[in-house]
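Problem: given the chain below (177 residues), write out its structure.
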Amino acid sequence: METNESHPLLRQFNETIDQWILFLDAYPLENLCKNPSPGSWSLGQVYIHMIDDTRYFIGQIRAALLNKADGEKEMHEQAKVLFAHNEFPDMQLEGPSTNVPIRQPQSKDELLKGLQSIKAAVNKLAAAPDFYTSPGKANHPGFLFFTATEWLQFAEMHMRHHFRQKKRIDEKLFRAL
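Solution.
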């Protein structure tokens, strides 16, 4: 029987977040806070965004595990496409509907601790005996209802989606090097 620690969804989440943790070693804080062009995010802002969003996703994972009432509700058709491809489309997406500016990080340690904290929280939740079988769902503001495992997959897809943004930022900031 497969243990929760070896489940492919959790393994992929851990691999993706570990990549983001390793990337931090390559940048001094000043480079993390450089905006590649006016109006675009710095890499540090990408990290802050991912950490903040993943904390929200963790809350939704908890809600899905506790909420047995919405098990029959479906995700949006567009979400079904994302999940079927296991990735976001290769395009730049608009930011959250709140249009709240993303702040710059105060330190690399802040980013490292944020990533480590969300990794620990996800792994703790995934250790629940019914994590992968729980029928409960929690509402996504645009994509409707996800189970705990779907929220985990969504969180990993979101972080992986930002690899493309990191590549674009690196190309703009370091093409002269």
